[in-house]
Specification:
By secondary structure, the chain is an alpha+beta fold. The protein has one domain (11-155). The chain is 23% helix and 19% strand. It has four helices and eight strands. The strands form three sheets. A three-stranded mixed beta sheet has the order 1-3-2, with no helix packed on it. It is globular.
Length: 156
């Protein structure tokens, strides 16, 4: 059995690894299923320094390339020039949200239920009081928030 190890990686480093096409989604993994509310909950947990879980990555050689998911994912595609494959076994949903926000684009993606998740419509409310949501999903900032809330993609 290969060695199992734990490594702490910063979010920006994950973004760089994604840009290089290091990670691959195996066919056995479900597609992106989260909705905007779930994505905002992840951001809130990060903001509050709550644990957000881990990523489980399986480093394997190219003989397992047949297990690659070939379509329908929102992460950058695996780069076939890599000598090894790093399959995302757990953490794909969280990594997908972080990747789409780190890109700094107001991108709209469809989850596997066909529902739109507009990453440009996720906002941070710096004026939220205790117990209020700091991260909001609004197609248009309206009402009492107006100019006070900031798009997450603009923050990053």
């Amino acid at each position: 059995m290969d060695r199992i190890y734990v490594r702490r990686v910063q979010v920006r480093t994950l973004g760089t690894l994604l840009e290089r096409g290091l990670f691959a989604v195996p066919e056995l993994q479900r597609e992106f299923v989260w909705n905007a509310r779930k994505a905002c909950d992840l951001l809130d947990s990060i903001y509050r320094h709550y644990p957000i879980g881990t990523m489980l990555v399986w480093k394997t050689n190219r003989r397992n390339e047949v297990q690659l998911r070939k379509h329908l994912h929102i992460l950058p595609p695996y780069n076939p020039s890599n000598s090894d494959i790093y399959f995302l076994i757990d953490g794909q949903q969280r990594l997908s949200v972080l990747w789409n926000l780190l890109k700094g684009q107001a991108q709209v993606v469809l989850n596997s239920d066909g529902k739109e998740v507009d990453f440009g419509a996720m906002y941070f409310n710096p004026y939220a009081r205790d117990g209020e949501r700091r991260f909001l999903y609004r197609r248009r900032p309206v009402g009492e928030f107006g100019h006070q809330i900031i798009r997450v993609v603009d923050l990053l």
